[in-house]
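Input (Cysteine desulfurase NifS):
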Amino acid sequence: MQGGFCMKVYLDNAATTKLDSRVLEEMMPFLTEKYGNASSIHSLGREAREAVENARKKIAKKLRCKAEEIIFTSGGTEANNFALKGVAFANRDRGKHIIVSKIEHPCVLETAKWLQKNGFEVEYVGVDEFGIVKLEELQQKIRKDTILVSVMHANNEIGTIQPIKEIGKLCKEVGAYFHTDACQSFTKEDIDVKKLDVDLITVNAHKIHGPKGVGGLF
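Output:
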């Protein structure tokens, strides 16, 4: 503080970001006069639907995937829940073994605990002193009946970027689905779903100067 003036410095962008003024400008018409339900067939509904689909195309372009492969959610937490529970219950006839890293976001760890209580076998893979998943340990734990592996792309607390491509290769060898929470890395790191060998990717808006309550799942 100098001369009675206090300057606020925000250093918590890894947790959430300020809504960008350009984003707010794009949103405002849909909060005021363009308020139609995107599922309605009248003009306001069609206008809203067009905006939703244009947004879907933009997200798909960033992930190098098809627009129809993007599902919008209420945030990263819902997308992570959707990914883990969806894959688990859709593939329980093939196996019930799931692997997640020990340093996942709490919403992934809590979902893993819930799945464990509901009949699935969950194992946790450790990390080294830099927070990088131990690939040898993962290779030892992954099995033919492993149906899902979930490891975040970039850690939300220490920033470690995981060897996603290598993990994806291990998953493909046993036919396991691979999910990565990319909320922290989306738009900051180049993400190509095909090159990374991932099956599901979680993203959200509030980490990249977008609104809270918006997420997506590839």
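Strands lie at 71-73, 97-101, 121-125, 146-150, 177-181, 200-204, 215-217.
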